[in-house]
């Protein structure tokens, strides 16, 4: 069984409703065709932080509305009713093994290809924005987790490729290892444009995987940042940077990871104040960094943070 995951731009959706109008070195590469030119967001358009909608239940629509108001412009969800209310926002494709057998977006009796098609079409319907189903599209769809069999993973990926570029401009995969990504990328017609993994010390902060992503222009999205890095959020460089700029430790950690590892952060708080604090705090840090007089302090603080990370790599 499988699950699909999608990323949608709230800014695009909101506009429709209201206006009608660095890790460079790596020894391996993904030998596959790039996604169609113009289909992948530019560096300026790609979000640096995404709002995650897991475990929000019936409050998903309220949380997403509040997140939009707070300044979030990209949202992550999945066609997995047990953990997400995609019908209240947007999606991922989840294999059957991770689904609730009593509440699935497709029949487990279908082939993998049929399951993927049914899941994507269900997501397109759930996430349409005042448009008919045939005009709906998603910014990206991710395979929520690879199958135990690489052949089955590739079969699911082939089915996803059918939706590129018109209905789904970009494809990605979540919860994947270096070997799995390399294998998929070398055999896929449309190579992954997004990798979404839990970023934590236990896996060495996915150093080699992030290098592979950087080498192939694939965005690495980090989830579970706060829950999986309690030691890191309390380390001296994070706390000193937070004090220097005047933001909380979570924002400090988000920004340091964004800048030193080149990752996009998934944040999923349900508290309105913390939503605004994340967006406002990141804007404050970016403004601080643009001031040339802070260059020396930034070099020292970011260097100290990198030293902390290297102990786990």
From TrEMBL:
SUPFAM superfamilies: NAD(P)-linked oxidoreductase. It holds the Pfam family Aldo_ket_red. Residues 86-228 form the NADP-dependent oxidoreductase domain. Keywords: Oxidoreductase. One of its GO terms (molecular function) is oxidoreductase activity. This is Uu.00g017130.m01.CDS01. Residues 13-45 are annotated as: Disordered. Residues 26-40 have a biased composition (Polar residues).
